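Lab notebook: predicted structure, single chain.

Context: the supervisor wants predicted structures on file for every construct in the current expression panel, including those that have not yet been purified. This is the next one on the list. No modifications to the sequence; it matches the entry in the shared construct table.
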Amino acid sequence: MKIRIGSGERSIFWEDPWIEGLSVACLAPAILELVRPGPIRTRTVQQGLTDAAWVRDITGTLTVDAVVQFLRLWPLVQAVHLDASVTDSFTWKFSASGEFATKPTYLACFAGRTAIPAAKELWSSYAPRKHQFFG
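Prediction complete. Output recorded below exactly as produced.
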């Protein structure tokens, strides 16, 4: 899913891929480990950017990895500007229209797979049972 941030009211700060197509969870997993579960699921981008409220979600002792990730995340978050007159838009990347549909999503699960040349024959072959179980 691709997200274009407008007002930030419909996008979840910690989980949705709103920073250059990536989520904060993906960009800074060490930071995410220090955030309580409640804000992870409920904090919107608008709420997080208002007075840098997302920083107050971080609790506990920062590790070296967490500090490095925080320093990389800060300018990315600061570069986002909200527009209250535009709602957030969500585009489904597995369909041409951008709307969610089950068929393209199902087919995307098999993208990149390789076919076994004799798979049909393998699964339809008959092998006699040599042993009888339960009876």
